Every structure is written in structure tokens, then in C-alpha cells.
UniProtKB/TrEMBL annotation:
Entry keyword set: DNA-binding, Transcription, Transcription regulation
Start and end residues of each HTH lysR-type domain: 1-57
Source organism of the structure: Sanguibacter hominis ATCC BAA-789
Name used for this protein in its record: ArgP/LysG family DNA-binding transcriptional regulator
Alphabetical list of InterPro entries matching this protein: LTTR, LysR_HTH_N, LysR_subst-bd, WH-like_DNA-bd_sf, WH_DNA-bd_sf
One Pfam family matching this protein: HTH_1
GO MF entry, a single one: DNA-binding transcription factor activity
Tagged with keyword Transit peptide: no
Matching PANTHER family: HTH-TYPE TRANSCRIPTIONAL REGULATOR ARGP (PTHR30579:SF2), TRANSCRIPTIONAL REGULATOR (PTHR30579)
Similarity-based family: Belongs to the LysR transcriptional regulatory family.
Amino acid sequence: MSPEQLATLAAIADEGSFEGAAYELGISTSAVSQRIRALETSLGRILVRRGTPSTVTDDGAPVLRYARQQALLAAELATEIGGVPAGAEPVPLTVAVNADSLATWFRDVLVAAGSWHDTHLQVVADDEAHAVDLLRRGAVMAAVSTDPVAAPGCRAEPLGVVRYSPRVHPDLLARYGVRTRDEVPRLPAVRFDAKDELQDTALRAAGLPPAGRGPAVPSPSAFATAVRAGLGWGMLLDGQVEAAPELVPVPGLEPVERQLVWQRWTIAAHRLDRLTEAVQRAFRG
């Protein structure tokens, strides 16, 4: 496995196509295809699923993880023995962060990263419950997760607890004639996306069936706006609750707390150490 082949696999994973990888690497699409074919032949495995988009296969996941680790370690070595060469490209750090964190405390990490001239962040927005899978597949080097069990080749460090409270506009309660806990399932619930299970988690804790159908609003601020507009009830962060005094608790439902965990590769790399320190500072506020 040559460095060029590994870099090409990583570029395809990042760009989602052979054409995008070719543009990123400054080579032809044919050269991208030849490199991947040679890499697959040498390993006897199909590493890339061709299509729109092109994605890394299960067999390609450990190779992608190795490719990213080698690129990071090579940059770390260059820094250690001679500093960052003039004109050197910043090293990408791929990080998975859930949307609520991106809209709140993780913004301070982005501000800090603005001064890291040897690094640039590539943020993947995904649900925190699925972050370990991204780490396992080599799609990211670090992630905000809810899984306390470290992914292979990673270490897990607790960050702290975030709390979501069930809130609803009183006009919606009146419209559906909901006064008691047992009547809550008839209310529509706002969901962030198809992966959003927070509302159903609160209902299960109260011994109730899943929430009624409501709108999907995949934006933290717009989600809160939808709840405030009476489109449905939803689980809101403490800061969102404070900003919406007109909302009331959903009858019979309790807040849901989630422990956030920072997972990162275990390899020794000052760039990952610096990112970890920034994440810890930002979460503590």
C-alpha cells in the first residue's frame, strides 16, 4: 500500500466520488481509478463501492482508518523533526458532532480552531448515538458520542450531561384537549430527523406509546421555533427552554439526560491532543 494509494482512498471517502477525489488530489480521474484498482488487487478486497456517491465498503473501513492514521502520523513526524514546512497543506481532522452540540458549545471549538494553521477541521454532522460507527469505519478521527465504550483504537472520555425537557405550546394542548399524561400520545411531536428518538424516550419512561406524527425539522434553532409555533411538542435543551417562556411542560413527562462522551484515536498526535483540550474547555464553558 503506497502513500499515494492510501491518500486516494481517503479522498474518495471525503469527496464521495472519483471525480471529486481527482480534483482534490490534482490528478486525473483515470489515475484515481488506477490507484484504487491497484490497491484492491494487492489486498484482494473491494474497498470502494462505486456509485453516486462512492463509499468505502466494510472491507475498506480498516484500510481507510489506517490511511488517515498514517497521514496524521506523517504530519506529526514532519512537525517534530523540522517544523511545518512553508506552504505545507494543513492536516485535516475529521470530527463527528451532533447538531445540538454544533449549535451550542462546540462553536467555541470552531473559534479555537481558527488559529490552528497546521490543521483544519472537517466536521461531520451526525447523531451522537451513531458516532462510534463512524469511528469504527474510519470516517472520522474523533467524535462526540453517547457511548461510554470506546470504539476500537479509541479512548473515551466523559464530557458531562446535557438535559432535554419536554415542552409544548399551551394552545396545542387546548387544540387536542390534552390535560393528562395518558392523553399525551395523541399530540404530534416535532422530530429532528428519522434518527431522533428523544421524544419516544421520554414517552417510554412514562410508560406511554410512541409519539404521534409531526413535522421533521433538522435544525436546532428551527426545531425550537416549530415547537414554539405549536406544530408539535418536543424535547428542548435548557437554553432553548429559557428562551421560550411561553411553553409549558408536557403533562406527565420528565426531562431526559444524556451523558456526552468524547471519543478519539489513541495514537499520540499533538493535533488530536489540542483538539481534545479545546473540546473539554468548550463543554465546561
